[in-house]
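Let's practice the habit of predicting before peeking. Look at the sequence and jot down your guess about where helices and strands might fall. Then scroll down.
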Amino acid sequence: MSERLEPLSHDAYGWHHATAPQWADSDVYGHVNNVVYLGYFDTAMNVALLEHGALELSATAEGPIGLVVRNGAQFFREITFPAELSVGVRIEAIGRTSLTWGFGLFDLADGACAARGQFVHVYVDRDSRRPAPLTPALRACADALFCNPATDKEETPK
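Done guessing? Here is the structure:
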């Protein structure tokens, strides 16, 4: 995330995960701490993978695993407890062995984008930890969640 991201609308994300801040998510300043946003994004990403049949959680699972090699967030508005939130999830780039995930965190009280984030997953062999091609299930998930960032329209300020 080297360039400055702008807030996007809820509709810029084709898949959403409902969440809410916990009391312990707040910091001494009374708002949700910035590191918690990354946790919301990580949870939403893994739920999306599960719902699209691209993540196996059993102890006997085979196939590549995704390692986060880069993540980050840009913040636009504070979130305070209590709140009803939605994490928008999409795939912004598909590589041979990697996926770039995009996230938007929305406060449902006013619909505004509070933050945007990105994770880059590189898929690797479980044993050797060497890059491995996306499986058909990962590719299908990526195709289902793909949204070309070049077509983004910035959110209209509220």
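How did you do? The mean pLDDT is 94.
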